[in-house]
Amino acid sequence: MQTLTDGASAQPGGPLGAHMSIAGGLHMAFVHIGAVGGTALQLFTRNQRQWRIPELSALDAALFAEAWAQWGEYPVAAHDSYLINLASPDPELQERSLVAFAEELRRVETLRIPYLVTHPGSHLGQGVETGIARYAEALDRALERSATSRAMVLLETTAGQGTNLGASFEELARIMERSGHANRLGVCYDTCHTFAAGYDIRTPEAYAATFDHFDRVIGLDRIRFFHLNDTRTGLGERKDRHEHIGQGEIGLAGFGLLMRDPRFASVSKVLETPKETDLADDVRNLAILRGLAGGDGGRP
Residue 43 forms beta bridges with which residues? Predict the structure, then answer.
């Protein structure tokens, strides 16, 4: 598990924050997370809707490092572009994805971000096992091509929409088993996605069963980041529809179990819930989660 500053680890539930915009420069993400009192951060290192990757200048890196230092020695993760699909059966798209992912790895290494969160791709009708094999092989090639050594790739649990890989713990485990760089792989556990994929956490019994299953298949020590999102759709419906904490199908009880679980007290947790530019939704959701961690039922 990651090492945290005393301030972050002393807070109920551990380091807690949100995904933040980089509009105006990468360093602006720290301004936004500081404004909501967050002690964990996720960001994109570039426009995730475009294939074009701008140069990361020395000034960009310096401003980022300075803003991070001013915010505090709190944990940060980057998320790669949603355009990337290392499992694609289209050779041209897979190569484009490989080049882009290698560059994402170089960017996070330059910025000294320890984690790069990624979706495990889509097999696009070729079958799960074929997709897993193709993904693991391309992931290894990207890691090697990037010539990086520090950043850990976190495979994000997915909702299982369409032909997306990573909806089951077994699929994530098989990717790790096939990779020649398993020591650089971990998991980002998304509560909305896993619930949509059929993993329940709403009662103590269901919560225990889900994480016992994860521990048997992958190992709890592989969880290095959480995305805390409630969901608009029911258990096992395989739809990715994020909702505010306590306003969806998981509800406050499920998040309370997670926030008070001592096994995850030092693991960073970030929101990806809907919000406006005033960030009031983040403030409210974070207050609810801190309340749940403190045992008061989630009252902000």
Answer: 78
